[in-house]
Every structure is written in C-alpha cells, then in structure tokens.
Amino acid sequence: MFRELASLSGLSLERLASLCEVGEAGSIGQAARGDANRQSLLSRQIAELEAVFGVALLARQSKPFRLTEEGRELARAARTFFQAAEDVRSRAGGEARRVVIGAGETLIQWLLFPACEAVRRGLGEPVVFAFKNLESARLVEVLHQGVVDAALIRPEDAGPGLVCARAWRYEQAAFVPKALSGGTAALRAVDLGAFSWAVLEGRGHFRRFLEERARAAGVRLNAALECSSYTQVALAVRSGRYAGFLPEFAKPYLGGGEPVIRRALESALAYQRGVVLAWREAGVKARPFLAEVFEGLERGLGRRL
C-alpha cells in the first residue's frame, strides 16, 4: 500500500511540506507573504496533491484560500510524520528535539518560561522549547492541526479530540503602588473611579466586568492608561503612577520599581479565570517523549498556579 502511494508522480515530501505551511499560516496568501511567485508555486503544488488524492484540499471558491477539511486532515497527518522523522534525525545526531507550546503572551512569560526551564533541567535529553503567542480561538485551531504540541487554553475551549491536564483557577488581583494605596483595607468598587488604572485595551470580558462594577457603585472606571498586554500593565504599576489588575501569579514580577501592594478585594470585585494544558493524544503517540515533557510541565505549572 505504501509503495503504491509513494510511487505516484504528484506526491512528494516537498508538496506535503507546502500543504503544512499553508495550514500553519492560515491561508495560501499568508503563507506566500505577498510573493506572487511563491503563491503560484504553493497553489500548483497543492493542485498536484489534489490530483493524487482526488479531492479538493484548498477551498478556492472564496478568499482567502484556506485548506478544506480534507486538506487539514492531510496536513495534520503529514506534519505528524515530519515531526516524528525530525525527532529520529535529531536524536541520531545528538541534537535537541523541538517542542512547540502555544499560549497568550502573559502566560508564556510568567508561567511557561519558568516551567519549561525546570522541565529542560529535569529531562535526560536536550529539548528546545518554542513558544507561539496566539489568541484563544487560533490556539485551539493550531492545536488540532498539530502546529503546536500543546497549548494553555481556557477549560471551556478544550473540546473533543484533546487531552488535558487538570484545570487550574487563578484570581485577578489588584496591585497598587504603595505611594498611591492610601491604606490596606479591601478595595471597593468605588475605588475603581479613585485610582488611575492601567487596563487592557479593547472590550474584553474583564474590562467589561470592571466597568459594570464601577457603574453599579455610581462611578466610572478611571482607565487612565490602556495597554495591549498584562506585561505592559505590570510595567505601568511598577512605575508608581498607576494601579492595575493582574493575574495573581504576576506578583513575583512586580519588583524592581516602586513598592507595590496587593490589595484585598471586596466580594463584588472577585474574578477568577481558568487555564488548562491541552494536547492531542495522536501527537504523543507519534512522539512518545512528549508524555514526559507534559508531565513535567503540569508539575511546574501546578507550583505556580
């Protein structure tokens, strides 16, 4: 069976690699990066694969051109092969094997960096970790595609086809520079209008939550500085000029600037989020060493959450 398939003229590792590239980029245009010649080549290579398998692999009826379900299935299988083959080559050459982890930037910097360093030290073989900073919806997509080996996602996003470590819960905590704090009593909703707050830009769920709590208290959220990431919020808090809400595990990263106090919160401001480490069972079957990596990550994350 394998020899018959391998002998077909339109099938090659290069064409399969191109299919994987389009799947990872999201569309053929994004994979080509504005290069018309490259886009033409990718389109032709995928067309040649379509002739081999007798099915449409690229949805050309609408733009941007994305892989069909059959295209994603084939790309997932090809990527698994390439990853397993690369593991064999790396191990034979004494090189580090590569593990790709997806998450938001905050989770990468404050949770995955230290957890992955602990895993690297504990493994009996060299491993290189690569991080992909992606939004939640895209994280789930690339996880199913096999573009990332594992991802930190919300528990509610971990649907069928994924294996998950236990879910962790963490609080959104209020951090206030000591010079602005004015005391250590529990922070009230009315204080959302009193301090100058550094907040995330946009209309995310937590931003709306704070605005609703402020409105219920008869004040307006004093969003004095809008940031694109929690790491920016942390820098703003460390400057001594802004208060900010951050995941509770951010506390060790708030040193090096003005003294910062974590203020207790009245019950109306309590807000929890969840996160889970998820991966595909097929990925671990193809690359068994990942099981030890994920066990180590689960332990490391558990110590920080």
Question: Keyphrases for this structure?
Answer:
D-Maltodextrin-Binding Protein, domain 2, two-stranded antiparallel sheet, 12 helices, 12 strands, 10-stranded mixed β-sheet, 305 residues, Arc Repressor Mutant, subunit A, alpha/beta, single chain
Secondary-structure map:
Elements: H1 2-6, H2 13-25, H3 28-32, H4 36-53, E1 58-59, E2 66-67, H5 69-92, E3 97-103, H6 105-122, E4 127-133, H7 136-145, E5 150-153, E6 163-164, E7 168-177, H8 178-181, E8 197-200, H9 205-216, E9 223-227, H10 230-238, E10 243-247, E11 260-263, E12 272-279, H11 281-286, H12 289-302
Describe this structure in words.
The chain has 305 residues and is an alpha/beta fold. It has helices at 2-6, 13-25, 28-32, 36-53, 69-92, 105-122, 136-145, 178-181, 205-216, 230-238, 281-286, 289-302; strands at 58-59, 66-67, 97-103, 127-133, 150-153, 163-164, 168-177, 197-200, 223-227, 243-247, 260-263, 272-279. The chain has 3 domains: 2-69, Winged helix-like DNA-binding domain superfamily/Winged helix DNA-binding domain (Arc Repressor Mutant, subunit A); 78-168 and 274-302, D-Maltodextrin-Binding Protein, domain 2 (3-Layer(aba) Sandwich), CATH 3.40.190.10; 169-273, 3-Layer(aba) Sandwich (D-Maltodextrin-Binding Protein, domain 2). It has 12 helices and 12 strands. The strands form 2 sheets. Strands 3, 4, 5, 6, 7, 8, 9, 10, 11 and 12 form a 10-stranded mixed beta sheet that branches. The longest helix is centred in the first third of the chain and has 24 residues, at 69-92.
